[in-house]
Amino acid sequence: DFTSAYNAVVAGECDLAVLPLENSSAGEVGAVTDLLFSGPLYVNRVYDLTVTHDLLTLPGVRIDEIKRVISHPQALGQCADYIRERGFETVEYSNTARAAEKVAELGDRSTAAIASEEAANIYGLEIAARAINGEANNTTRFAVLSSARNVPSGNRSDLRFILTFTVRNEAGSLARAIDVIGKHGYNMLSLRSRPMKELLWQYYFYVEAEGNIDTEKGADMIAALAEYCDDLRVVGSYIKDN
Per residue in 22-46, pLDDT tens? Predict the structure, then answer.
């Protein structure tokens, strides 16, 4: 699962973890956003990947035999229209590949998995229906995380960065924080709030913005944000993929 992959890098068992940030139809992957806020790793690369979900069954199974599908919640959400039209029961699983493995292990003709063609080949399943995700251009943004923060070299114009922070419990703190980012010339691309699990009805914020934060201007912005924000962290910088 996402936390295990993240923690494997924290523990030094792996050099990198590649985790999904958001999907074009299902939205943000909140569990990963929470790891970015609470954990020590840095985002050093972000890239887009077109994702196609297939319906995988035991060999010889017809679609009308299927009663339930198992997969990761994101995949189930991306295929919600197809699932609803056929009245399938849904079962959440840790990831799509493990869901395919589970179908192979169960040997139950009424249970299918939503996963990739590669997973079908690995676990000896058949593809009963291809590309069942609701949007043809279904795309997921993935982040590459490591324990060291990579600072892009040179005066580049295609840099982006990610910040997470909380704001002080004072009227207008969030508005002032957002204003600071704009006044320093950074174009904010995304602003999201997430609940803090340990503090009821309190939230942290996730920001992606264009520009090089590793400059004197960026340092000035961070200093100005510190007047209104707590738990302020530069999660990483990355070069925008073309």
Answer: 988 778 999 999 999 999 999 999 9
Distance CA(211)–CA(238), nearest Å, equals: 10
Tokens coding 204: 């942290």
Q: Which of 33, 26, 27 is nearest to 2 (CA)?
A: 33
In whole angstroms, give the CA distance from residue 123 to residue 176: 53
Contacts of 213 (CB under 8 A, 6+ apart): 159, 161, 186, 221, 222, 234, 237
Are 214 and 155 in contact by the 8 Å Cβ rule? The answer is no
User: How are beta strands 111-115 and 68-71 bridged, if at all?
Assistant: parallel
Burial category of 192 from C-beta neighbours within 10 Å (exposed 0-12, middle 13-18, buried 19 and up): middle
Q: Looking at beta carbons, which pairs linking 80-85 to residues 24 or more positions away fall under 8 Å? A: 80/134, 81/134, 82/55, 82/129, 82/132, 82/133, 82/134
Q: Do 141 and 20 touch, CB atoms closer than 8 A? A: yes
Residue 21 is which amino acid?
A: L
Q: What is the largest CA-CA distance in the chain?
A: 64
At 202 the pLDDT is: 86
User: In sequence order, what are the residues at sequence separation of 6 or more whose Cβ sits closer than 8 angstroms to the Cβ of residue 226?
Assistant: 232
Dig out the tokens for 203 from the structure: 């939230």
Q: Are 227 and 204 in contact (CB under 8 A)?
A: no
pLDDT value, residue 54: 96
Q: Look at residue 26 in the predicted model and tell me its pLDDT.
A: 78
Backbone angles phi, psi at 143, to 5 degrees: -110, 140
Side chain identity at residue 199, one-letter code: L
